[in-house]
Structure formats: C-alpha cells, structure tokens
Design brief:
heterotrimer, A alpha/beta (about 120), B mainly beta (about 160), C alpha+beta (about 725), A: about 120 residues, Rossmann fold, five-stranded parallel β-sheet, 5 strands, about 20% strand, C: about 725 residues, alpha+beta, Heat Shock Protein 90, 5 domains
C-alpha cells in the first residue's frame, strides 16, 4: 500500500513540485495551502504518514504549525514531520527540530535529496 | 511522384483549384448580411454560430458580376484567423494532379489574377488555376474619403 | 491526483509570483512612509517564496536576485536598516527586474540570459551600508522605474503575466462566456418561436430566467475590483513625483467597485496617463504651493463609483487647474482649429480641444508627459471600449477627469434598427432617446440646408445623419412597399456631441453577444463588431463614435481635413437662424451663436433689479425684448408663449425674445452695409428676401454693460 503525505506550503508551484517528486517516490499526496488549512484537513481525521511543512507561511508559520501538531494528542504522534526551508540559518533548523520536526529539507533540493531525508526518518524502503 | 488533391470549382467560366487540406467544407448559398463600403467582401454568414466573411471570387478577380438570380456556392476555407468563405459559381470534382502537369502563371494573365494564382495545371481539355488561398482571402476594407457632401458640423451646432 | 508537468508548474509559479509582486509595489511605498513589522513580513514572504520556488525550478539567475533582495529585507526586518528613499528605490527596481524576468521565463521557459548582477551588487552594498537615515543624498536619486527601464526593456512586452489570469484560467472563462453567449442566442430563438403550446411557453420562460441568471453569474466571474488596478498607483505617483520634484500623496475611494477584467486592462493606460499629467501639469512645486498658501504636498484622489449601468472613475487633483486659454492657443497654433471658430466654442468645448492629437495642456516640455502627448490617446482608448472622458473642474480649483465606462463588453443591450432592409444593432449605452416623426412632422421639424439636416428637439438643434447615406446602402427591395414616410430618429451621444440617426424602422432592444469582426473587416471603423440575431441572421454593430467621426459630427481637425482654399470658401458660407420681429422685419443671426431655441410662457417672465429675467435651467437668465431694442412693434405680446433665442457667451446665457422663428438656412452671404441702423450689422438677400443681420456684440452690451442701459431698454 502506498504511504500518504500532506504537503503544506503557500506556494502552489512548490506544492506541485513536491507533489510530483513524492508521487514518483511512491506516495499518495494531499496538499494544504497554509497551516490553518492543514489543521482543518487533519481535523477531518484523515491520516497521513508524513507531513512536509514549509517554514515560511502567512498566518500560521511552519514552526507554529509543527508545535500545534505535536502538542495536541488528537493528532497521531507517529506522524513524521519534515520542515522545508530555504533559510540556511542553523538556529532556525534547531528551532524546527526543537518544535518537534523529525527532519529538515533545504531548498533548493532534488528528488534524490528528498529521498535521502525520507530514508533518514525511515520512510522509504 | 507525389500526387496532390485539389478541390475544384468554377467562377466566371474559369476552373479554379484549392488544395483539399485548405477546404473546411462546401455549402449551399447562405443568407448574407451585406458589408458597407466593400465589393469583394460580399457579406457575413452565420456558420453554426460562427460569423464568417464571404469573399466573392469573381469580384476579387475583377471578373464580370454574377448575373442576378444566380445563387453562388460557398467554399469554406480554413484561414489562420478562422474560416473564410469564397463565393463561386459551381462546385466541380476533386482532382488528383502531379507536378508533371504544373506550369507557371502565364505572363498574359491580368494583375488581379497573378496576385492570387500561383500556377496552372493542364487537365484533360481544361486548365485549372491554382488558387493561393492565403492571398485570396487577404482583402481589407478601405473606407472611402468621408462624405464631402455630408454634414461637417462645428461642435456648437452638433451639441 | 494527477501529477503536473514542468510547464504547468512553471505557470503556477509565474501566476503566484506576479500576484505577489503586484502587492509589493504598494507595500514598499508604504514601508518607505513608516516601518511596520507585519508589512515587512509580508514583503519578505513574497520575495522569500520567489527565491525558494525559483531555486526548485532551476531558475538560478532569478533566485540570485531574490536572494540579494531577501538579505536586504532581513536587515530591515531585524531593524538594522531603515527603508529610506534609496533602499526603497533599489527594492522597487528589484520588483521591476523580477517582473521582467517572469516575462522572460513565460516565453523561454528558462531564465537564461537574465542578468541582474549590477542590481544585485547594489542591493548587497545597501545591505552593508550604514542606516540610510543618515545618508540623505536625495538629489542624486532617480526614480526606480526610469533606471530599471533598460534592464527590463527586452522583457517588458511580456510584463504582467499574472494580470491575465484569475484563479481559473481566463481562456476557460472566455470559453464558458462564449457558450453562455451561444445559450443566450438559442434562448432568443426559442422565445421567438411563438407560444402555441403552453408547456413550451412555460419551459421557455424558465429557460429565459435561468439563462439570464447564468449570464449574470458568468459576468460576475469576470469582474475584478478597481483596486487591482490601483495597486500600482502609489508606486507610479512616487516615481513621477520624484522626477518632477513635487510632493504628492494619493487617496483612493471606492476601490471595491468592480469591472470586467478586459475593461480593467483597457483603462490601465488612460488612467496612468491622467495620473502622470495630474502630477506633471496639475500639481505645483512645493514652492509654488507655499506661495499660494496651499499645503506643500499635493493630493490626487482616485474615485470609482457606479452610476446607473456604468462605472465612473475620476482622477482629480488640487493643482493649478486647466489653462483653457493655453489649450486654445495651442490648438490654433497647431492648425487644429481656426481662431475664429475656437473663440465661438463654449468653455467646456474649448477644454475638450486638449483631446485633439498634438494639442498640449502646458508650455513646458517635460520628461514625464512629453509635450501634451497622450490626452488624445486617453480619449481614443476610452472610447474604444465604449467609454467617454469628461473634464470637470475639481471643487478645489484643480482638475478632475472622469472616465465613464460600461460594466462589461461581452453581452450588451442593444437597439435593433433597420435601414434599407438590413438590420443593425446600436449599443444602448450610446442612445439618448428615440423620436418618431410622421411625414408631416418630419417635413416641418427637419430643416434641410445644402445636404445638411438639422432637427429641433425641444429647442436643441441636432444634426441628422441618414444611416443609409453614411453606409452608402443601395435601395433594397425591402424598402419599397412596406415603407411609410415616417421618420425614425435615434438620438445618439458620441463623446461630447449628440446627433440623430435616421433609420427606416426601429425594432426591439435585445441582449446581444458581441463578436469581434474578422481580420478583413478591421478597416470598417463604423462597426465595432457583429452579432447573431434571434433568427440566426448576422447583424453588424454600429460604432457610434466611428459613425459620427466618419460623418464629420465632431470637432474636426480643420487643417487636416480641408485644403486652405476650401476652408476659405467655406468661411463665407454662413448658417443662420431667420426670425421675425415686428410685423415684417426679417432678421438673421449666425446659428453658431445660438445655444438653444426655447419657448417660455409669458407669465414666467419676471423683473429683477430692473432687468427682465426668466428662471432657466436652475439659474436666472436675463431676457431682452428685441422689438424694444430695435424700436419695432411686437405682434406676439398677446400670445401665451414667448419665442426665445438663447445666446450664450463666456458661459453666460441671454434670451432674445422674438416674434417668430422662421427658418434655419445655409447661405453664401453677400453683406451690404447698413450703418444707418443701430444694432444691425448689415443687410443681405436670404432666400430671395431682404434680411437684416442682427449685431450681436452690440446687444450684448445691454446686459454685460452698465445697469442704466439695461433699464433704459426695459
């Protein structure tokens, strides 16, 4: 059975790019256009194996979103979180990991780099 | 040798041919809405909800006008900016020709013909004039000088 | 979920980036006026997003520029730098440059060849500069747009990728719109089938209703708020005012007013022109404004509002207003109009001369507006979409331009008329009223003079065009037999002028679907499109402005339209109003001096401060009894109605009471001296009868001059 991923990003183009790569890596993909939208999707009870979350989004940013997911027992805590960021500041990565992300992925990335990160958190065979 | 197919038709006694690929369809005479200030642009036709221009091939070639009561046929051509109809006298066969029968435009032809005829094919007992469709439908309207007899009013009076 | 290919993703990127960039113009200008954390975050996010996604898509040159911008913005966000003029200018240049790059990418699917290295270097050096607050070298600054122009020139044509897309691809929307159009046609056809079967009737009623709602809904999907257009205005105002050394702020009202997106795009250029002109020619320099005790900072107000079925957009400023004399002088200078004729125009018409090609509103040639170039473009572009431009005077003495534009273009209400058996559609928006005249009324009401026809509509003189003459239609068979001799006039508004179009028959008003004319018919300026009628026949849509222009019902550029000799000859031909005062005194005055012909009940004539007056059009108009002035005996004193010729000069109206309006004629005059009589400038033979020409300027002294004179007369 294919695993399921949710991509949270305010850029449609980035979501499409990520979705294409994830599809090729064997995932079923859903998209959310911001943190609030992602929460609404998760609230429906739909389950996911991995969330790819943009760091920089309007209203609820990536770190806030990760924190919200990790601090609410309603959500399946087995869910893997990858923070997608283009900011090469170490303290931001730490912030993301501290908030509960399992990994981070820095833009620009390739499908191979994405696959590596997924392997790191035990998602690919 | 490669054969070419031409859709042929007559206008003013001459036989013309257009490559079949250029012809979208052939239809009977249609009601037309006349276009002001124009002679070759005969009218506008409603072709299944699309408005297309009908160009009279006789007028385009400065041939004699079609006798009144003689309904023309429409050869609907595919144009770069949509379909255009050519009004002709009667539709003839589709003919196959090869380059063997092709000749350049005779020097004696009138300028109006030379503009839109790209050559001739000698058929059995007939000559087929090859119509350059793109040039044939390249007609515009030039509005004549504003009516000198008409009112040229100063704004005071016009207001 | 279907995966997308690279081109689709690229398009998504271009769309979302253009949307983001469009906000940036406004946001950056606001940032310049004061730091606001939320605003910096918004700006930062747009650039950050572009940087991130362009990197993913392999658009590395674009990514580098966005990266440099992001670094500079980080400093601003963290409070290390303040966005002053120089930084804002550089950031705005970055926005322009990114926009240009988007155009390039849209075309080439890559950003190869896009090189913004000098801009990147500039952004980097600014990042490392001391806080700009201490710099203040404003005099060396150029407005952002001017400099970015060169980098951008190549890609400029592809600008504004995103503006052509809604959330739904516009081409899909257009296709749907077209289908709704077809549905409207079918609906019209069914409605015409007749109602023998009641079930069909009720179904077709329902179809009618649903189609109407669908059509309205479809229209709404194409509507966009005017604020979309205004987003770029603060940026424009900033750049232009820096170039002109002026201080200008801009205010907006009614940005939520919605317009069809095609129209919105069409008025972009006219609006830009008006704003440039307002800053360049309207608003004074700070020093000049100080001298006039105005605030140093000028104000431009953009206002949008609905007015009936139309939308009005006004651009007003509190500057020095419009120098009418200067425009007239320039129009005369350029040979666009004769001095003589210009002097006879009303103030409003004189102002309207600025819309003639080449006529300037200002003496100074400036970098921004050039020398008066553009007002004719404003007019042409606005009229192309069925709109009009008016010049109003702003309440504060500045200038105010008003664009009046239709809400939508695709489906319009139109009146169907018939001329020589052929149907034509006339857009309802151009129609003022319909007048039907019986043969007798027509014979009496339409005056013919040398091929010119004029109709008196409630005292107003309206030129008449015959549609079949203008279009040079031949007498069709349909004309014969069925036709009565009634005359149908469609009174039309073309810009500032109105005229009557005589047609053979007037049918109903219909909603018509406007279809563009084929390439071959582009030269047919009297038609704006074609439509399919309920019965399937094609009808041409009359372009009222084009028709008026063709028939010469317009301010004509005399120098262009006539040879000098013809104009000279023309000048000797005068059009005259013939009237009678006293028992048999036949008098004439030039028609161009007559504003209106009116009838007033005699009991409405009042005396005020010794002057005979009448309440007229919301004001009080002095009236003069010509019989008294000329020492004649009036023979109409006993009638209830007074015949009045309204004379207008310099915005003031005066009524001249006469005994009878006889005729309007056009004659080549040979004037004989008649100095023996006061108030008469000469005598001529008109229509075979001796007629005296009234000396208007002399009469004018009766009301503009001393009060005693007036009293003496009255």
């Amino acid at each position: 059975m294919r695993q399921r991923a949710l991509i949270v990003d305010d850029s449609q183009a980035t979501r499409s790019m990520l979705a294409t790569m994830m599809d090729e890596l064997g995932f079923d993909v859903e998209e959310a256009f911001d943190g609030a939208n992602a929460i609404a999707i998760l609230r429906t009870g739909m389950t996911f194996d991995v969330l790819l979350v943009d760091w920089n989004m309007p209203n609820v940013d990536g770190v806030q979103f990760v924190r919200a997911v990790r601090n609410d027992p309603f959500y399946n805590q087995q869910i893997r979180l990858i923070m997608v960021t283009s900011v090469d500041e170490p303290n931001l990565m730490e912030k993301a990991l501290g908030a509960g992300a399992n990994e981070y992925l820095m833009k620009p990335f390739t499908k191979e780099m994405l696959a590596d990160k997924l392997t790191l958190i035990g998602m690919t065979r | 040798m490669a054969t070419q197919q031409f859709c042929t038709f007559r206008a003013g006694g001459e036989l013309f041919g257009v490559e079949v690929e250029r012809v979208q369809e052939v239809i009977n005479y249609q009601q037309m809405t006349p276009i002001p200030y124009s002679s070759a642009l005969r009218g506008l036709i409603n072709l299944r909800g699309q408005i297309i221009v009908a160009i009279d091939l006789r007028t385009r070639l400065r041939m004699e006008e079609r006798p009144s009561g003689y309904a023309p046929m429409n050869v609907v051509l595919r144009g770069d900016d949509g379909a255009v109809s050519l009004l002709v006298d009667e539709i003839c066969d589709v003919v196959n020709v090869t380059e063997k029968t092709f000749e350049a435009v005779p020097v004696t032809m009138s300028a109006a013909f030379k503009e839109i005829i790209s050559g001739v094919h000698k058929l059995d007992g007939d000559l087929m004039l090859v119509l350059d469709a793109q040039h044939a439908i390249n007609v515009g309207i030039e509005m004549p000088e504003a009516n000198s007899a008409g009112p040229a009013l100063s704004p005071k009076e016009a207001n | 979920m279907a995966r997308k290919n690279f081109d689709e993703i690229l398009k998504e990127f271009l769309d979302e980036s253009s949307e983001g960039l469009q906000q940036l113009d406004t946001l950056l200008v606001k940032l310049e006026h004061g730091r606001d954390a939320a605003r910096v975050d918004d700006i930062f996010r747009v650039i950050h997003s572009i940087k991130g996604t362009s990197g993913l898509l392999g658009l590395n040159n674009l990514e580098m520029l966005a990266h440099a911008g992001e670094d500079l913005l980080t400093e601003i966000r963290d409070g290390n730098l303040i966005a002053g003029k120089e930084i804002t200018t550089a950031l705005l240049q970055m926005v322009d440059s990114l926009r240009a790059a988007m155009g390039l990418v849209a075309e080439k699917k890559s950003d190869a060849g896009f090189n913004a290295s000098s801009l990147i270097a500039r952004l980097e050096s600014l990042k490392d500069s001391e806080s700009e607050a201490v710099l203040g070298q404003e005099e060396s600054l150029e407005p952002a747009a001017a400099e970015a122009e060169q980098d951008v020139a190549a890609a400029r044509a592809h600008n504004g990728v995103g503006a052509q897309h809604l959330r739904v691809d516009v081409s899909l929307l257009d296709k749907l719109m077209n289908m709704v159009g077809e549905l409207v046609l079918v609906r019209n056809q069914i409605m015409q089938l007749g109602h023998s079967n009641s079930a069909i009737t009720s179904s077709s009623q329902k179809l009618h209703q649903i189609t109407t709602e669908l059509q309205e809904g479809m229209m709404k999907t194409r509507m966009q708020p005017v604020s979309n257009l205004w987003d770029r205005v603060p940026r424009l105002v900033r750049d232009v005012s820096i170039t002109c050394n002026k201080q200008v702020r801009v205010e907006f009202e009614g940005g939520e007013t919605e317009l069809d997106k095609t129209i919105l795009e069409a008025i972009k250029d006219p609006l830009t022109h008006l704003i440039r002109n307002a800053i360049d020619h309207g608003i004074e320099t700070p020093a000049e404004r100080r001298a006039k005790s105005k605030p140093e900072e000028g104000t431009i107000i953009l206002r949008a509002y609905h007015d009936g079925g139309q939308v009005c957009i006004e651009v007003s400023d509190d500057g020095k207003g419009i120098d009418t004399a200067r425009i007239v002088a320039d129009a005369v200078d350029k040979g666009s109009i004769s001095a003589d004729r210009a002097a006879r125009l009303s103030e409003r018409e004189q102002k309207a001369l600025m819309f003639l090609p080449g006529v300037s509103t200002s003496d100074d040639i400036t970098k921004v507006s050039g020398r008066g170039v553009g007002m004719d473009v404003v007019k042409t572009n606005t009229e192309r979409i069925g709109g009009t431009v008016d010049i109003l005077t702003a309440s504060n003495g500045g200038a105010c331009f008003r664009l009046t534009i239709p809400l939508t273009l695709a489906i319009i209400p139109a009146l169907v008329v018939v001329s020589r058996g052929i149907r034509y559609a006339i857009p309802q928006v151009n129609i003022l009223e319909l007048v039907r005249l019986s043969a007798d009324q027509a014979a009496a009401g339409i005056e013919e003079a040398r091929g010119c026809s004029v109709y008196r509509l409630r005292g107003r003189l309206i030129p008449i065009l015959y549609l079949h003459e203008v279009l040079r239609l031949k007498d069709g068979d349909a004309r014969r037999g069925q036709q009565s001799d009634d005359v149908n006039l469609v009174i039309l508004q073309a810009g500032l002028h109105s005229f009557g179009l005589a047609v053979d028959d007037i049918n109903d008003t219909e909603e018509i679907v406007v279809k563009p004319l084929a390439r071959q018919l582009k030269g047919l300026t009297v038609c704006s499109g074609a439509t399919i009628m309920g019965d399937g026949a094609v009808a041409l849509i009359i372009d009222v402005i084009g028709l008026a222009r063709r028939a010469g019902v317009e301010v004509q550029n005399e120098a262009q339209s006539r040879t000098a000799a013809a104009a000279e000859q023309d000048a000797k031909i005068e059009r005259l109003v013939i009237f009678r005062v006293g028992k048999d005194q036949r008098l004439a005055m030039p028609l161009h001096l007559v504003a209106r012909l009116e009838e007033f009940p005699r009991n409405k004539l009042e005396t005020s401060a010794g002057q005979l007056v009448v309440q007229y059009r919301g004001g009080v108009m002095p009236v003069v009894k010509l019989a008294r002035v000329l020492n004649l005996e009036s023979d109409s004193e006993g009638s209830d109605l007074a015949q009045v010729i309204v004379y207008e000069k310099q915005g003031k109206s005066v009524g001249l009471i006469v005994d009878e309006i006889v005729d309007i004629v056009e004659e080549r005059l040979t004037v004989h001296e008649a100095d023996f009589q006061k108030n008469i400038r000469g005598r001529a033979v008109i229509q075979g009868r001796v007629t005296d020409l009234l000396e208007i300027p002399h009469i004018s002294e009766l009301w503009t001059g001393a009060a005693e004179t007036v009293r003496g007369v009255n």
